[in-house]
Specification:
The complex is a heterodimer. The termini of chain A are far apart. Chain A has a domain of 190 residues: 3-Layer(aba) Sandwich (Rossmann fold), CATH 3.40.50.10490. Chain A has 15 helices and 11 strands. Helices cover 45% and strands 11% of the residues of chain A. A 3-stranded antiparallel sheet of chain B has the order 3-2-4, with helices on both faces. In chain B, 31% of the residues are buried. Classes of the chains: A alpha/beta, B mainly alpha. Chains A and B meet through α5 and β3 of A and β1, α4, α5 and α6 of B. β3 of chain A pairs antiparallel with β1 of chain B, so a sheet runs across the interface. Chain B: InterPro entries: Mn/Fe_SOD_C (IPR019832), Mn/Fe_SOD_N_sf (IPR036324), SOD_C_sf (IPR036314). Chain B: This is Manganese/iron superoxide dismutase C-terminal domain-containing protein. Chain A: Belongs to the universal ribosomal protein uS2 family.
Chain lengths: 361, 298
């Protein structure tokens, strides 16, 4: 109270002057220095304690029950328990009434695709994998995959399809087990979701828009600005090698899986020029020599494509798991790249001749 | 175009048809899928051979369960054919169409199938006894198990017309509040549903006698703050009072005797499992995760 009155009296002085001078000026009138300083100290102490307490403890706002208008005690908050009860109640009451026969669920095929061990002829038949094109549109190179003719179309042998699909699964998991990069390609409408999911499972790349011709043969032009990184055997980023990365050649896939080879023949040709093995769904009108490992099946049925992409994605997932397990045991399944200590600046100096751009090989 | 002799035209058409008859392959009736099927009860074979304890004979059981549930499921298949509900579980169908008068038939059949299955899933051929925990819970809400039994059977007996009577548990029950008991008896007429999300079709009252002065409004005794059906309840136990269940064995006047005999056929373990009593108030060894969480053990 004494201090406030002093401040008002000395108002014009206190605005500009620091605290010390007006305390000195008051010393002659009222001896409030000791009281004021002690109060100041105590204020500072309480403020510091308060700020410490505020910083260390979190303030919890009490929840008010809308019905009884009383505060709910937070220690008795049962939200999690109630949620579990609701889930359990649903589990008890949902099956009542009638039992639903097993049936096709499209979303499950994309989001939870089948395993390679779940490839059966019944699955392939239900996914319309056996339906080829009309007989007049066939490619005679495919005759070994065809079972017969029915109602004007070629029927693909499903046992042959199953065998080729299992082989393709083995190739995908084998490549990924050895640290390879797989590219899943599906450019027809509706194939994007399954292709992305397959790439996610296999830890690879996906493509569902048009393939830019030259992305492999002319990679430094088209994909030169793409970000690359270096990882160790546990897939952890190793920072600090930006210079080396700039000099290294553009990444190429180690395996390409294509859902519609007929439209992507340019991509498959580039792969063959660069010795990249390819897997593809070969319909009765498609040239089987486009790919290294053909899978004779129906590329026009979205369900069939989803089954094949899903199964190959799962195979990739198994390969990743196997690679990681071996890395944990100290067995690195691939030959690591050697990073040179001398940083190459030839590219920057010479202006980018082909040899410099190609980088150390 | 001049039409030639129709007989000659028919023979010409017949010649162009393939030798294999393809029409039978595309007959929709023979290829029609029926996805909804009658669920398998745990004690189905025992009931069909010997009946349900002293409550129902084998013929009554076959009529009330196999025939009636088969009829309901068949109607469900027909009503949901070529719609998005073709593969949907029955409970989801009844919850979606509870507020739709145009789909009343679909709701009725789905709800009746659900209620009927709930009823038969709580029956057992060998009489069971109530666990001490369940006795304590019933006594807390109804003062004793005998008074609960008396109230329940009297309620079921007094209902005129077909329906179900349920024992329900309030999930938002506050253990400290003594005015609203945890367990309650709920009646549903015809194909009314006790599920909270289908409250619009709970049908808990006979509307011919329920509507009178003072039945609605702030002084009617209905809680104004909670929306109708807003109370979250879990159905635990039910009795089917439709006449087709007990008429054959007891006649028109035998409803009371049917209800009393039903009491001995209840599987109290399943009833306790259907409710989720407060885990805090349970004993330390009350871990129910080892039980199969489906009603009826199938």
């Amino acid at each position: 109270m004494i201090i406030r009155k002093a401040v008002i009296r000395q108002g014009c002085h206190t605005r500009t002057a620091p605290t010390r001078p007006w305390i000195r000026s008051l010393a002659t009138e009222v001896d409030v220095q000791s009281i004021e300083s002690s109060l100041d100290n105590s204020l500072k102490q309480t403020k510091s304690i308060e700020s410490q307490v505020q910083n260390e403890t979190t303030k919890l706002v009490p929840i008010i029950d809308s019905r009884t208008h009383s505060t709910l005690k937070l220690l008795e908050d049962k939200t999690a328990e109630k949620y579990k009860q609701l889930q359990r109640h649903k589990k008890l009451t949902n099956p009542l009434g009638s039992s639903i026969a097993p049936h096709y669920k499209p979303h499950l095929l994309v989001n939870h695709p089948p395993q390679p061990s779940e490839i059966t002829l019944e699955l392939l038949l239900a996914s319309q994998a056996h339906l080829g094109h009309r007989t007049s549109h066939w490619n005679p190179l495919n005759s070994r995959y065809i079972f017969g003719i029915r109602q004007g179309i070629h029927i693909i042998s499903l046992d042959v399809t199953a065998a080729h699909l299992r082989r393709a699964c083995r190739v995908v998991s084998g490549v990924i087990e050895r640290g390879g990069l797989v590219l899943f390609v599906g450019t027809r409408p509706g194939q994007d979701r399954c292709v992305v999911k397959a790439a996610q499972l296999a830890g690879g790349c996906h493509l569902f828009e048009r393939w830019t011709p030259g992305s492999i043969t002319n990679g430094h032009q088209i994909l030169g600005n793409c970000k690359t990184k270096i990882v160790d055997e546990f897939d952890r980023d190793i920072p600090g090698y930006d210079e080396e990365l700039r000099d290294r050649p553009v990444l190429k896939p180690d395996l390409v899986v294509c859902m519609n080879p007929l439209e992507n023949w340019v991509l498959l040709h580039e792969c063959s020029l660069n010795a990249i093995p390819t897997i593809g769904i070969i319909d009765t009108d498609v040239d089987p020599t486009l790919v290294t490992y053909p899978i004779p099946a129906n590329d026009d049925s979205l369900r069939c494509v989803q089954v094949i992409a899903g199964v190959l994605g799962r195979a990739g997932e198994e390969g990743q798991k196997s690679r990681r397990e071996k890395a944990m045991q100290g067995n690195v399944t691939y030959t690591p790249i050697v990073l040179s200590e001398r940083v190459s600046t030839k590219g920057a100096q010479t202006g980018g001749s082909a040899k410099d751009i190609r980088g150390p090989q | 175009m001049i039409l030639s002799n129709p007989l000659r035209q028919q023979t010409a058409l017949r010649a162009s048809l393939p030798s294999i008859c393809t029409q039978c392959l595309y007959n929709p009736k023979s290829q029609r899928r029926r996805l909804h099927r009658v669920p398998q009860l745990a004690h189905d074979e025992t009931f069909a051979e010997k009946g349900v304890g002293s409550m129902l004979g084998p013929e009554s059981y076959i009529t009330a369960w196999r025939d009636y549930e088969g009829y309901l499921v068949d109607r469900l298949n027909r009503l949901t054919a070529d719609t998005k509900d073709f593969t949907r579980p029955t409970k989801e169908i009844l919850l979606e169409y509870a507020r739709s008068p145009t789909h009343a038939s679909l709701f009725n059949h789905a709800s009746m199938a659900w209620n009927n299955h709930s009823f038969f899933s709580t029956l057992t051929p060998t009489p069971t006894s109530l666990s001490p925990y369940l006795i304590a819970r019933l006594s807390a809400s109804f003062s004793s198990v005998d008074s609960f039994r008396a109230t329940f059977l009297a309620t079921a007996n007094a209902m005129f017309g077909p329906g179900f009577v349920w024992l329900v548990r309030r999930t938002n029950h506050n253990t400290s509040a003594a005015d609203t008991p945890e367990l309650a008896i709920l009646t549903t007429y015809l194909a009314g549903s006790p599920l909270p999300r289908a409250h619009y079709r709970r049908q808990e009252q006979d509307m011919n006698t329920a509507l009178q002065a003072g039945a609605f409004g702030p002084r009617s005794g209905r809680d104004p703050k909670i929306a109708p059906g807003g109370a979250l309840i879990e159905p635990m136990l039910c009795v089917n009072t439709w006449q087709h269940v007990w008429l054959h064995d007891y006649g028109f006047g035998g409803k009371r005797e049917y209800l009393e005999r039903w009491w001995d056929c209840i599987d109290w373990e399943i009833v306790e499992r259907n409710a989720q009593f407060d885990a805090v108030n349970r004993g330390p060894n009350q871990n129910f995760s080892k039980f199969n969480l489906k009603v009826g053990r199938y």
